[in-house]
Amino acid sequence: MNKAEGGNAYIQKEYYLSPKRPLTDVEKELIWKKPISHKVSEEELRICKEVKRNWAREEMKIANILLEGDAGSGKTQLAKALSADFGLPYTKVTCFSDMDKSDIIGAILPVISDEHLHRMDARDQKVLKALYESDGFQSAQTILMEALQMTENQATSHLKDLMKKVSSDLKEDAVEYRFYPSEIVSAYEHGYLLEIQEPTVIRDAAVLMALNSALELDGSINLPTKVIHRHPDFIAVLTTNRDYHGSKPLNEALRDRVQHVEKMDLPSKEVMIERAIAKTLFSKQEVLSVLADCIIILDQTARANAIKGVAGMRSYLYWIDAVAAGIPAKNAMYHKVIYKMTTDEEEIRLLEEALCGHGMLEQLEEVETVVKKQQ
Ligand SMILES: Nc1ncnc2c1ncn2[C@@H]1O[C@H](COP(=O)(O)OP(=O)(O)O)[C@@H](O)[C@H]1O
Ligand SMILES: [Mg+2]
Q1: Element holding 260 (H helix, E strand)
Q2: In the CATH hierarchy, which fold is given to the domain comprising 3-98+184-264?
Q3: Which among 60, 170, 173, 179 is least buried, having the fewest CB atoms inside 10 angstroms?
Q4: Of the ligands numbered here, which is closest to the C-alpha atom of 265?
Q5: For the chain, where do the domains classified as CATH 3.40.50.300 start and end?
């Protein structure tokens, strides 16, 4: 057993927060299963220990966590890993700039008569039926995503259109109203781990305030139908990309609500290589090392020159994958890394100069011979 597997085995159930809590089959399905390629990080162990240490201390509980840092540093995967470690279902919400209050709390929809329902177009009928038949455990977004095979974003905007349509056309016809909770409310009420992606982009102050009060440890949310209280197992993991070019920082009040923060950087070269081997199954050390050096140099050069794009783990993985498939390393670097950062001639020249200055271009040519020989 290698070290990382040992780490995984060691972590199993040791950090479960409510081991005796009964979960439904659907909830069990939502607990993330760590793939073999997952490597336990220092950050993960630290959070597990900290949360567990304070779990029973009501007023000192750690249940709002912020992971802030580079794109591709592993924030989302860490949030998912914590779901596995804590034994809590994983759910997520991706924030967007014009989020409104219904995105935080949920949607209220009239239950309309069969007669009216049959006059609506087939897609709307399908969605409304799915919503009416739901048991109130899934969020409206999830129901739409499943009924119409949509992405989270599409489901959100479709739901809004539908709300407008039914409430303007059919007000008089409504027999009753039903409330469909958002992903946030659902996680909050049932005690899941919720990843809140990029809350920095939210513009509406009222939405920020609603989110902020939802993060209070002993908080509650006022819904049109009832008041719900924060489930003692609810954990919010905020993930934000640190932007070094002065885009909006995380709202101060939200920031103040978190009880533990991890600064997530591009992982060390060793960790990059370890994760890459696990993911791509390509294991030629000398090749992985040169490619990692290039990524690190490109990342540093981008920061130093205010180039907006990032060179990170994702580019690294796809680059390795292309090289492993026999595409020349230098050529693949443009399509998997550099153009992803920028297509501006001047910026590309800066990046090339930095690579050249570190002797990376020759090393990339050597890589090509190594890979060719191997094939
Ligand atoms: N602990 C880990 N072990 C193995 N691979 C990881 C780990 N953390 C992240 N990765 C991989 O790195 C890439 C970027 O991770 P992700 O969590 O999506 O980053 P972020 O959310 O910070 O942008 C993904 O391909 C992911 O699978
Ligand atoms: Mg992410």
Answers
A1: strand 260-264
A2: Rossmann fold (3.40.50)
A3: 60
A4: 1
A5: 3-98+184-264
